[in-house]
Amino acid sequence: MKNLHSILSICLLFIFFIPANFAQTDTSSMIADWTFHPNYTLKRNAANYPGNKIDPPTGSNHYFKINGDPIIFFGQEPTQRIADMLQPEYLPQKAFTVEFWLLNHVNLPVGALLTSRGLATTDAPSWYVGYYGDEVVFHVNSERGEAVTLSAKVKKGWKKYWGHLVGVYNGQEMKLYLNGQQLSSSKNVLGSLNIPEDPTLEMAGYFDQEPYMEISNLVKSARIYNRELSPSEINNRFAELQQRVEKGKLFDDLFHFNAGPYLHYSTEESINVVWETDRLATAKVEYGRKLPLDQSIEINEPAYIQEVTIPGLRPGTPYYYQITATALDGETCESGILTFGTAVEDQAAFSFCIIGDTESRPHVNNQLGEMMWEERPNFIMHLGDVTDGGKEPHKFEWNYEYFTGITPVASRIPVFPVPGNGEGDLYWYSRYHKLPEPEAYYQFKYGNAEFFMLNSNANEELLKGGEQYEWLKDQLENSNAEWRFVAHHHCPYSSDENDFGDTWIGQLTGLGDPKFDDLKTLYETAGVDVVFYGHVHAYERSYPLKDGKIDRENGVIYIKSGGAGGHLEDFTPTHSWFSNKVQRGHHFCRVDIYDQTFSFKMYDIEGRLKDFIDLEK
User: In the predicted model, what is the mean pLDDT of residues 340-349?
Assistant: First the structure.
């Protein structure tokens, strides 16, 4: 095995630089340009990707060819390799520039490496550029100079998580840049590159600590030029990439859906669907109970984000639909044929899945989405923190993270969300959802159950006399549903280790958010059966609780499900009196309702049953 250097992941250096006008980078000397996007789909007959896309590189397909030993990078073996990405005759011989455009929003060390290398064990690499942990690296091996490695520790990136990593060699000097700033240089390299006899270009990913992550989650684009780029050209390229992110574009110069189609808020007679295109477009939504589709809705006002309520549907009925977006120049983008089901009638059995805190890991949310799809629930309840911090300036957290991971399942199964602190300004939340007024909180009926969805970011509104408290009190008084469920983001009860005081050093508070004190009394006196919430990235189920005690006959059960794509959290070192079951790890839940029975199950990310409870009235 080749042992290069022990290095990096990325939480990249912050350089606040976006010029209002900039020149396009000269691409005449570009010899490779790759776009990376995970292009997730479901399995089997549901495996259609909605719209146009660019596939990430896979390398040449050589049966039985050995592509050299895996490269050990910072003591790690690669978990993914893309070999033979460029024909040997196109590999740089002397002056060259290589760039990465990186998005790292995980809290565990991960990395990637792009290298020109030989296949023999004794071959030294001509060059490599890489990152791992909190370090970036550029290595050059020339014929007339010594092999030199530049490295630098890095901090937070542009918009916290983005980094433009560039290595430049001109035959006399090598330089390492990050987000437009030169970090390091060396003149101890001279002449042409030292190229092995059988060279190949390989990219490797190092995700041992982030299962399900792949190169396309971390590297968004890569380029190689056969000349040195100047500092101004590097800054121009950085600005181009920044503008792409600001617009939420997944692919450059390709008409595509960068959000959705996204189903949400289904009723017995209608369903809402939202989507976004990377440019202004009109649209046509076709739908029907069978193929070919026989009904349609046309949107003639060009927009980026479009939302439609499909009306006049039958209860508990499967439907097909397709969205065709048309850009102003006439180019089209089609979703392909997708499916959905309407809400069931009052006394029919139904099921729903639950996730919370999808946040920063589309690879985890995609895995959970595939597993929820296999369950075929009627809908998905989302407990907030759809994004980690997707407020107005961080649109990319919706496009690159939430919709990338959730669209395969959410284009077929409707979502009922509540807002978390991650989208507490409601800016993009309200634009990507079409919910009953006032949208931040709402109520809906499904089968013989009624759901009350609160915005727990509005602290004062949750107190007795507050807007949401009084609204919920009235709703519960007027409810005749067999089952009553409340959902919000923050925690009335939680045994986590440090959100309410560091329990490892003896700081122990009430193990829950005190802003819910009034609501807990209301839940316990107004007939609420179960309260669902997230916020803490773990799973917990309480005993039935009333008046601060366990009450198996009259108590309310509190279920925390915050185990989607956020950074995982842990629990107090000792047992909490109210807690029946805790579990650390990514997960989802499923609820089945029929008549007077409530069946609940929690599954981990591998599909293993970790908790269950059955209730009967």
Answer: 96
The pTM of the full predicted model, rounded to 2 decimals, is 0.93
The set of residues, in sequence order, having a beta carbon less than 8 Å from that of 536 and lying 6+ positions away, is: 491, 494, 496, 499, 560, 562, 569
- Whose tokens are 């984000």? That residue is 305
> Distance between CA 44 and CA 169 in Å, rounded?
47
- Residues 604, 589: contact at Cβ < 8 Å? no
Give the chain's radius of gyration (CA, Å): 26
8 Å CB contact between 73 and 113:
yes
The alpha carbon of 87 is separated from its chain's Cα centroid by a whole number of angstroms, namely 34
| pLDDT tens, residue by residue, 309-336 | 999 999 999 999 999 999 999 999 999 9
| Torsion angle, alpha carbons of 575, 581, 587, 589, to 10 | -150
* Sign of the torsion angle spanned by Cα atoms 511, 512, 518, 522: negative
Does residue 73 surpass a pLDDT of 70? Answer: yes
Q: Kindly state the tokens that stand for 368.
A: 């959970």
Cα 362 from Cα 406, distance rounded (Å): 7
Region of 265 on the Ramachandran plot (φ > 0 left; ψ -120 to 50 alpha; else beta): left
- Helix 467-477 × helix 517-525 angle, to 10°: 10
List C-alpha distances in Å: 469 to 115, 279, 291, 441, 545: 59, 41, 46, 11, 20
Whole-number Å distance between alpha carbons of 314 and 321: 15
Determine the average pLDDT of the residues in 400-424: 98
Q: How far apart are CA 59 and CA 67, in angstroms?
A: 11
How far, in Å, CA of 324 to CA of 333, rounded?
6
Torsion of CA 505, 510, 514, 517, to 10 degrees: 180
pLDDT tens, residue by residue, 476-513:
999 999 999 999 999 999 998 887 778 888 777 668 89
Across the beta sheet with 174-178, the strand order is 30-35, 219-225, 96-103, 162-169, 174-178, 181-186
